[in-house]
Amino acid sequence: MTSEGTRVDERQDHHVHSTFSDDAVSTLDENVAAASDRGLRVLRLVDHVRLSTTWVPDFLAAVAALDVPDGLEVCTGVEAKILDSAGRLDLPDGLGTHPGVDRVLVADHQFPGADGPVSPRVVRDGILTPQDAADALDVVVTATVAAMHQVDRAQIAHLFSLLPKIGVSEDQVTDEHVAALGAAAAATGTTIEVNEKWACPGPRVVRALLAAGVELVVSTDSHVASDVGRYARVSEILRVADSS
C-alpha cells in the first residue's frame, strides 16, 4: 500500500537481517524469497557491523550472487551503532563511502555518552528530574544529527527506540528536536525509517519529517524471514499521520 498523504510505500522493507548478523536466523536467500512472496518491490538486506568486522566483502559478494525474482530490487546496508555524543559510529574504516554499501544504518542501541556508549539502564537510573530527561534528549538528537554527517548515505534506524529504554517518552521530544533532525536529514540525503519492531517514530514526528522534505522508508527490522514485509504498527502510524 502507498499512502497518498505520507507518500511512504509499504511494498518495501529497508531493514532486514540475515545470518550474517549473530542474532538473526534466516539466510539471504530466505529473505529474498519471503519478500517476493509478499509482493515487495524493494528489499534492503542489512547486517550488524562493528569496528572490528571483516566479513562485509563476503556479505556483498553473497548479495550479488542472489537469484532475485523479477520485480524485486535488492539493496544493501550495514547497521552501526552511535558510539558517542559526537556521532562517531561503530563502523569499519572505509564502509561509510564503500560503493557496494547502499546505506549505512545509524542505530541508537546504547546511549551516546561523551566518552562512549553508556548502558540505557544507567542513564534511566540517573534521570531524576524533567531537566535530566531534556538533557538526555538533547544528547540523543545532537549525536544522531552528527552521525548523519559521518557517512555518505545514511539511514536512521528505529529513530527514538532508545527513549523508552532510558525512561523517556517520544512525547517529550520537542518540535525543535524534530526540526533539527529533519533539517540535517534533508541536507545530507539521509533517509529515516518508520520501524515495525519498535513502532517508531510516531505520527507527529512522521508528519514533521515529511514536511521538512525527508525521505521516509518503512522497515520491519526483521531477524526471521516470516516477518519480512509484514506491517501492522507501521501501517497504523502512517494512517494516524495521514488523518491528523
Automatic annotation (TrEMBL):
<feature type="region of interest" description="Disordered">
    <location>
        <begin position="1"/>
        <end position="22"/>
    </location>
</feature>
<dbReference type="GO" id="GO:0042578">
    <property type="term" value="F:phosphoric ester hydrolase activity"/>
</dbReference>
<feature type="domain" description="Polymerase/histidinol phosphatase N-terminal">
    <location>
        <begin position="12"/>
        <end position="84"/>
    </location>
</feature>
<feature type="compositionally biased region" description="Basic and acidic residues">
    <location>
        <begin position="1"/>
        <end position="16"/>
    </location>
</feature>
<protein>
    <submittedName>
        <fullName>Putative hydrolase</fullName>
    </submittedName>
</protein>
<dbReference type="GO" id="GO:0008270">
    <property type="term" value="F:zinc ion binding"/>
</dbReference>
<dbReference type="GO" id="GO:0005829">
    <property type="term" value="C:cytosol"/>
</dbReference>
<dbReference type="InterPro" id="IPR003141">
    <property type="entry name" value="Pol/His_phosphatase_N"/>
</dbReference>
<dbReference type="Pfam" id="PF02811">
    <property type="entry name" value="PHP"/>
</dbReference>
<keyword id="KW-0378">Hydrolase</keyword>
<dbReference type="InterPro" id="IPR004013">
    <property type="entry name" value="PHP_dom"/>
</dbReference>
<dbReference type="InterPro" id="IPR016195">
    <property type="entry name" value="Pol/histidinol_Pase-like"/>
</dbReference>
<dbReference type="InterPro" id="IPR050243">
    <property type="entry name" value="PHP_phosphatase"/>
</dbReference>
